[in-house]
Automatic annotation (TrEMBL):
It comes from the Bacteria. Gene3D superfamilies: lambda repressor-like DNA-binding domains. InterPro entries: Cro/C1-type_HTH (IPR001387), DUF5753 (IPR043917), Lambda_DNA-bd_dom_sf (IPR010982). It holds the Pfam family DUF5753. This is Helix-turn-helix domain-containing protein. Residues 17-72 form the HTH cro/C1-type domain.
Length: 292
């Protein structure tokens, strides 16, 4: 099944374009609001993606900014997609706003590069491993078994990105400690390692392991670096985004100087890690050791 454009990505790109066109027209939000008889907060919320854009409102803004022709049509197409509801929004009651936005951005990414030092990356987890990970929160946050199952289904739903007709290109470096750290019982870990081996057969998935006994090029916590597809007339649908996560906070970073730095960090980690074949052999050896 081909992937549908992500409404989250389209909404954020549209917001950025509306802000840029206003600035190019040398207008501020107060001036535009007065001319269109809108509130200034409406202009602000449209330009930050905080409200769903309506076609009529976008058309009014584009006329005011003298934007027409193919450019206007492309932006109106973004408007239509932005009005859709992503499947992940059904989980809004158990997710922070940042995490909800991250999943929406991930759904529209063309490539994700991730460094993981604590757990197997979410898109590569088995259901039992994901369930074991979600269960850790039960004594911390008093979440119910039902919520554990919903969190597990959410993670499995995200994994459809890897098997779509135009699959997400996923490149990850995993710390060796992740493969040794147990989530669930030995059977869960053995199945997880076998699942990683199977995933290495995909031409769009790259898994490399950073050995504990080897050099570590950067003392950096886990992160994901997302890149987005190009669209005719618009270039990249959205600029690169980096996502970092800790227990108490999730952060989306979009400043170019920061995303560029993370891209370089990933390159250093990938260079220091084992190659794909050596990583596959190590994963297989660890799985065999559990079976013994």
């Amino acid at each position: 099944m081909a992937r549908e454009p992500s409404p989250t990505v389209c909404r954020r790109r549209l917001a950025a374009e509306l802000r840029r066109f206003r600035e190019d027209a040398r207008l501020n939000g107060v001036q535009v609001a007065k001319q269109l008889k809108w509130s200034t907060s409406k202009i602000s919320r449209l330009e930050t993606g905080q409200i769903l854009p309506q076609r009529g409102d976008v058309e009014s803004l584009l006329r005011r900014y003298a934007v027409d022709g193919e450019t206007a049509e492309r932006l109106l197409t973004l408007t239509e997609i932005a009005q859709h509801k992503g499947w992940w929004e059904d989980y809004a009651d158990i997710l922070s706003e940042t995490l909800l936005t991250f999943i929406g951005l991930e759904a529209g990414a063309a490539e994700v590069r991730s460094w993981q030092s604590t757990v197997v990356p979410g898109l590569l987890q088995t259901s039992d491993y994901a369930r074991a990970g979600a269960s850790i929160l039960m004594p911390l946050e008093a979440i119910s078994p039902g919520e554990v199952e919903r969190r597990t289904r959410l993670r499995l739903g995200r994994q459809q990105l890897l098997t779509a007709e135009d699959p997400l290109v996923y490149d990850t470096v995993i710390d060796e400690a992740v493969l040794l750290r147990r989530y669930g019982d030995e059977g869960v870990m053995r199945d997880q390692l076998h699942h990683l081996l199977k995933l290495t057969e995909s031409p769009t998935i790259t898994i490399r392991v950073l050995r504990l006994k080897g050099p570590h090029p950067a003392d950096w916590s886990s992160f994901l670096h997302m890149r987005f597809p190009a669209v005719d007339g618009l270039g990249a649908l959205y600029e690169d985004v980096v996502y970092t996560e800790a227990y108490s906070a999730q952060v989306l970073e979009e400043r170019e100087e920061i995303t560029h730095r993370y891209a370089r960090i990933f390159d250093l980690l990938a260079e220091a890690a084992l190659g794909e074949d050596e990583s596959r052999e190590l994963i297989a050896d660890l799985a065999d050791a559990i079976e013994c």
